[in-house]
Protein backbone atom coordinates (compact mmCIF):
# COMPACT_ATOMS: atom_id res chain seq x y z
CA UNK A 1 0.00 0.00 0.00
CA UNK A 2 1.47 3.35 -0.95
CA UNK A 3 1.45 6.41 1.32
CA UNK A 4 -1.44 8.03 -0.61
CA UNK A 5 -3.84 5.39 0.74
CA UNK A 6 -5.31 5.40 4.22
CA UNK A 7 -4.51 2.40 6.39
CA UNK A 8 -6.82 0.55 8.76
CA UNK A 9 -4.65 0.27 11.87
CA UNK A 10 -7.27 -1.58 13.89
CA UNK A 11 -10.37 -3.27 12.50
CA UNK A 12 -13.71 -2.74 14.18
CA UNK A 13 -17.46 -2.98 13.65
CA UNK A 14 -19.20 -0.38 15.84
CA UNK A 15 -17.54 2.96 15.08
CA UNK A 16 -14.82 4.42 12.86
CA UNK A 17 -12.15 6.63 14.41
CA UNK A 18 -10.47 8.67 11.65
CA UNK A 19 -7.18 10.42 12.36
CA UNK A 20 -3.61 11.04 11.27
CA UNK A 21 -0.21 11.99 12.67
CA UNK A 22 0.19 12.57 16.40
CA UNK A 23 -3.42 11.69 17.16
CA UNK A 24 -3.07 8.12 15.88
CA UNK A 25 -1.65 6.66 19.14
CA UNK A 26 -4.39 8.43 21.08
CA UNK A 27 -7.09 7.02 18.79
CA UNK A 28 -5.61 3.53 19.24
CA UNK A 29 -5.63 4.03 23.03
CA UNK A 30 -9.26 5.19 22.81
CA UNK A 31 -10.08 2.01 20.86
CA UNK A 32 -8.55 -0.01 23.71
CA UNK A 33 -10.72 1.85 26.24
CA UNK A 34 -13.80 1.21 24.11
CA UNK A 35 -12.95 -2.48 23.66
CA UNK A 36 -13.12 -2.89 27.44
CA UNK A 37 -16.76 -1.76 27.13
CA UNK A 38 -17.54 -4.08 24.20
CA UNK A 39 -17.43 -1.27 21.64
CA UNK A 40 -15.43 -2.33 18.60
CA UNK A 41 -13.67 0.71 17.11
CA UNK A 42 -12.04 0.69 13.71
CA UNK A 43 -9.07 3.07 13.59
CA UNK A 44 -8.28 4.52 10.18
CA UNK A 45 -4.96 6.33 9.74
CA UNK A 46 -5.54 8.83 6.93
CA UNK A 47 -1.74 9.11 6.46
CA UNK A 48 -2.00 11.80 3.78
CA UNK A 49 -4.49 14.63 3.70
CA UNK A 50 -4.11 15.55 0.07
CA UNK A 51 -5.10 13.47 -1.72
CA UNK A 52 -7.55 12.18 0.87
CA UNK A 53 -8.43 8.51 0.47
CA UNK A 54 -12.22 8.89 0.40
CA UNK A 55 -12.71 5.26 -0.61
CA UNK A 56 -11.21 3.78 2.57
CA UNK A 57 -13.04 6.33 4.73
CA UNK A 58 -16.43 5.65 3.14
CA UNK A 59 -15.96 1.87 3.16
CA UNK A 60 -15.25 1.96 6.89
CA UNK A 61 -18.15 4.30 7.68
CA UNK A 62 -20.52 2.16 5.59
CA UNK A 63 -19.54 -0.84 7.73
CA UNK A 64 -19.67 0.81 11.19
CA UNK A 65 -22.40 3.44 10.55
CA UNK A 66 -20.70 5.82 13.03
CA UNK A 67 -17.67 8.11 12.75
CA UNK A 68 -15.48 10.27 14.96
CA UNK A 69 -12.84 12.45 13.30
CA UNK A 70 -9.85 13.26 15.50
CA UNK A 71 -7.73 16.28 14.57
CA UNK A 72 -5.12 18.24 16.53
CA UNK A 73 -6.21 21.35 14.65
CA UNK A 74 -8.84 23.74 15.94
CA UNK A 75 -12.45 22.74 15.32
CA UNK A 76 -13.22 25.96 13.44
CA UNK A 77 -12.02 25.64 9.87
CA UNK A 78 -10.35 22.33 10.66
CA UNK A 79 -9.41 19.39 8.52
CA UNK A 80 -11.89 17.45 10.67
CA UNK A 81 -14.61 19.68 9.23
CA UNK A 82 -13.54 18.73 5.70
CA UNK A 83 -13.57 15.00 6.49
CA UNK A 84 -16.96 15.35 8.21
CA UNK A 85 -18.35 17.19 5.19
CA UNK A 86 -17.09 14.50 2.81
CA UNK A 87 -18.64 11.74 4.91
CA UNK A 88 -21.93 13.63 5.01
CA UNK A 89 -21.84 14.23 1.24
CA UNK A 90 -20.83 10.70 0.26
CA UNK A 91 -22.19 8.42 2.98
CA UNK A 92 -25.04 10.28 4.67
CA UNK A 93 -27.52 7.41 4.37
CA UNK A 94 -25.00 5.00 5.89
CA UNK A 95 -24.81 7.01 9.14
CA UNK A 96 -26.82 6.13 12.24
CA UNK A 97 -25.67 9.28 14.06
CA UNK A 98 -24.02 12.59 13.18
CA UNK A 99 -20.28 12.58 12.52
CA UNK A 100 -18.49 13.64 15.70
CA UNK A 101 -15.30 15.70 15.81
CA UNK A 102 -12.68 15.76 18.54
CA UNK A 103 -10.31 18.69 18.01
CA UNK A 104 -7.90 20.84 19.99
CA UNK A 105 -9.16 23.58 22.25
CA UNK A 106 -9.41 26.85 20.36
CA UNK A 107 -6.41 28.40 22.09
CA UNK A 108 -2.78 28.83 21.09
CA UNK A 109 -1.04 25.55 21.93
CA UNK A 110 0.70 26.14 25.28
CA UNK A 111 4.33 25.32 25.95
CA UNK A 112 3.90 23.68 29.36
CA UNK A 113 3.35 19.95 28.87
CA UNK A 114 0.33 19.61 31.18
CA UNK A 115 -1.36 22.54 29.48
CA UNK A 116 -0.52 21.20 26.01
CA UNK A 117 -2.09 17.86 26.95
CA UNK A 118 -5.19 19.70 28.19
CA UNK A 119 -5.50 21.53 24.85
CA UNK A 120 -4.93 18.54 22.52
CA UNK A 121 -7.35 15.63 21.97
CA UNK A 122 -6.73 12.79 24.42
CA UNK A 123 -7.81 9.14 24.42
CA UNK A 124 -10.44 9.61 27.13
CA UNK A 125 -12.14 12.44 25.22
CA UNK A 126 -12.04 10.46 21.97
CA UNK A 127 -13.58 7.44 23.73
CA UNK A 128 -16.30 9.64 25.25
CA UNK A 129 -17.21 11.03 21.81
CA UNK A 130 -17.36 7.50 20.41
CA UNK A 131 -19.57 6.30 23.28
CA UNK A 132 -21.95 9.17 22.67
CA UNK A 133 -22.03 8.52 18.93
CA UNK A 134 -23.02 4.88 19.39
CA UNK A 135 -25.44 5.72 22.20
CA UNK A 136 -23.50 3.84 24.87
CA UNK A 137 -23.36 5.21 28.39
CA UNK A 138 -20.14 3.87 29.86
Automatic annotation (TrEMBL):
<dbReference type="InterPro" id="IPR009014">
    <property type="entry name" value="Transketo_C/PFOR_II"/>
</dbReference>
<keyword id="KW-0786">Thiamine pyrophosphate</keyword>
<dbReference type="Pfam" id="PF02780">
    <property type="entry name" value="Transketolase_C"/>
</dbReference>
<keyword id="KW-0560">Oxidoreductase</keyword>
<feature type="domain" description="Transketolase C-terminal">
    <location>
        <begin position="6"/>
        <end position="126"/>
    </location>
</feature>
<dbReference type="InterPro" id="IPR033248">
    <property type="entry name" value="Transketolase_C"/>
</dbReference>
<protein>
    <submittedName>
        <fullName>Transketolase C-terminal domain-containing protein</fullName>
    </submittedName>
</protein>
Amino acid sequence: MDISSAAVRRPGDDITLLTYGGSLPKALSAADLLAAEDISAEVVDLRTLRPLDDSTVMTSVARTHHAVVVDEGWRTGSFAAEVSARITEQAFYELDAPVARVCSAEVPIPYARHMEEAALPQAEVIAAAAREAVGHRG
